[in-house]
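Annotated sample (chain length 391).
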Amino acid sequence: MRYIHWTLLGAAAVIATACHTGPSAKSYYGVKEGRGIRVKLVVGRKERKDGEVLEVRDSTLVVLGMGCAVSFVPFATIREAAFKGINPAYEKGWPTPDERAELRMLSRYPGGMPQSVLDYYAQCASATIDGVRPPDAKAFLAIAKRETSRYQPLDSAIAAGYRRIGGDIPSLGEHWVHPGLVMSGPIDPARPSVLIYTRTPSGPVLAGVAWTKVLGSGDPYPDEPVGRGAWHEHNGSVALESLPMRHDHAGRDATEPTRVAILHAWIWIENPRGTWVADNWALPFVRAGLRADSVAVEAAQALSLTAPGAVDYYTRAHTISLAPADSARLGRTQAVIAAAAAEAGAVRAGAAAALTEAQVARLGAIWAGLQLRLAGRAAVRPNGEPSAASG
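Output written by the structure step:
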């Protein structure tokens, strides 16, 4: 018993010594505040950004600002940076690459922010803006809906000068652009520079609208009508911009001479993730003639494989960086995508007006298996049979 007593006293002494000889609250390396790392940035032409560091990417800092607005700030555009709540060595100036790696581990998402989180913040930003400035945002949308109702027939849009750019993109629809309005200055709710249609069994249907703003080097996104967080941008040819598997809000290098910012509004086909969120995964359901009662993204992605031209679209999206001579790999990729499209088509053929929970799960499994096969790893088909990995 006395042995146990002295053992406990010894352990207590060791713990007490460690408490006094280890790092103190002031000298501890990690985050000091419960709210995370705060940063103040000066970007481009003295534009200021303030918020929490969500993620540190190889070339971009992801910052959560006021009202759920997420900013993707390229390192090349940052002129000044000051951090709070972490090791004082980072609090002035921009960290070195080694320090940046350490900073990444102290951000909220050191392993990378999931797409579902980005979707949440985009929807939250939209809802917050509507809550803070309801007359402005809601009136803007009401005018847009009233004035664009005339374009329900696609022929009327063509007659008004809108021209198609690219195809019917899975979550973005078919963009019809008015060149004159793209280059005009003001953002007019009655005159959107882009009309968005999607192809359905009964013909093209107006799904939404978009506004554009031409930006110079270092220019920030517009504040109107719902704040900068809802805008994203396009650089380069529209053909290349239409190929990514999902729309990217991260932006490009803000120092480029000319950029085109764009703001989507889904005022004719509701976007379950928010009116101002760019990707609308209800569109594949509408194209298939199905009700979008519950939009699971992976199920919608698999369903998008069944649309006309989708196999070619996704093949190009996955092989755009291949040399033209690598026709063998292109052919293998197309065959893998076509097989997944056939599986998704079988699910769609067995559906009524809306998908059942089992059908939604099956479609999600088809899409997940396709991604594994395209990545060159063995996958399990939805029917439980193993599939060969494809390179």
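Annotation: The longest strand covers residues 203-216.
Annotation: The CA atoms of residues 290 and 355 lie 7 Å apart.
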